[in-house]
Amino acid sequence: MRRNLRLLEPRxxxxxxxxxxAPGQALAAILAVHAxxxxxxxxxxxxxxxxxxxxxxxxxxxxxxxxDKLPPLPWWLVEIAYRIAGHDYAYxxxxxxxxxxxxxxxxxxxxxxxxxxxxxxxxxxxxxxxxLNYTSAKFNHxxxxxxxxxxxxxxxxRGLRVGRMRDWILLGLAVGLSLWAKYFVVVLAAPLAxxxxxxxxxxxxxxxxxxxxxxxxxxxxxxxxxxxLVRNDFLPFGYAEHRAVLxxxxxxxxxxxxxxxxxxxxxxxxxxxxxxPLFIPRRKPGEPPVASLADAFDRRIVTWLAFGPLVxxxxxxxVSGRGTVAMWGxxxxxxxxxxxxxxxxxxxxQMRLARIGITWAIIFTALAAAFVVNYDVxxxxxxxxxxxxxxxxxxxxxxTDRYRAVTGRKLAYVVGTMWDGGNVAHYxxxxxxxxxxxxxxxAPWINLNDLRTRGxxxxxxxxxxxxxxxxxxxxxxxxxxxxxxxxxDRRGDSSVNVGWAILLPQPAYAQxxx
Length: 514
Description:
Elements lengths: L1 H6 L6 H8 L1 H23 L5 H10 L12 H12 L4 H38 L14 H21 L3 H17 L4 H13 L1 H4 L6 H22 L5 H7 L8 H24 L20 H25 L15 H9 L5 H28 L14 H16 L5 E4 L1 H10 L5 E4 L11 H7 L1 E5 L12 H4 L3 E9 L6 E9 L11
Helix pairs in contact: 2-3, 3-6, 3-16, 4-5, 4-18, 6-7, 6-13, 6-15, 7-8, 8-11, 9-14, 13-14, 13-16, 14-15, 17-18
GO molecular function, one term: pentosyltransferase activity
Organism: Pseudolabrys taiwanensis
Protein name: Glycosyltransferase
């Protein structure tokens, strides 16, 4: 042991010694590296925006209180980033700001329980999740949940332990904003409320104004969107209904939660590897336990935060028998690192810290390398379709130029799918609005009379390219089909066949029907 400790003298391992002496500065450096790497990689390797961001830019520009799929907050944020920066890197940076904010809040929450060094280790453990690395490059409703869930956990613990009104207000704000991020917030709010009811010590808080203020703040923050949901017959819930696989029989009440649990355990492997030095080698007989800053109540709160939402998902799936979505795991394990540090109760001497730090660095590098391989190396050999290689800019340029050549006007409207129409809308210099799937109910902000007056195009990339798809004919059946054309993907040897038709502008009087 003495020999190993000597190998970790500051002059030989300055980074480890520096991290141990200044955990806060080490955290800042780690978060900066994280944000830089996962902003630069997609900026360099995604020549076309992914679907989540195309969708965000299509929806966000309309500034609605609600949409037909999901809550509006992430789409608003993408639109704000577009207006401020006007470059693709801003969307990837936005995703990383959400991630590092969540990690910073975990550190702040853990620090009084584990000490600054233990809090740093808790962050490193959580940062091993691919949810916060590889898949966080695509800013969406899953990513934006992270800081709000982390804030809710921090405020919930502080509210129960300290009882300051500002902590309860923060809790209400975090839960309220989580609804604007994703309806998955119920998986967070339900176990928090249950803990206050079932834990004797937590139940004492019900004698104070705090929990009621938190509920009031949450409802107040949620209110505009809740009103919109009621007025629109809870329209987005149909999307959730469509995504959740229906139960096929009694066995799905067992299989679906088991399937989700196994998938999440697999995704947790990197984090567990980072945490392994906390438990290996095992505690020797007679080795004194490390004095903990957390008492039994703290541990119960952290345990509930770490497992309550996961158990809620499993219980909901078991009761309903419905399938789950693997990406629901995004925010479920934010407090697992804090829990592991508390359970281990081991001294963070330099050798143990070095093993944790090296394991984290290997995993972080491996995830970044896998990203590079998938989007730069493999496309040269596997020829697999990747949406981020779609020729969105070329499609928009061709459609816009050809429409202008025929009509002499700017392109105002596109009728098409979220993907085809959204790419034209984003990459065209005219930035036309999109009637999604040709369905007015999916884009109620579009005035159909204005569409007919100003004209537009119909775009499709599947089926018969010489005939307008049947789903668009009610809106643009009179559109004139134009010669199709072929576009090569941004990378690789794949290509896209494009069918399109021009909906010529009609004077207002021409739209009058007898």
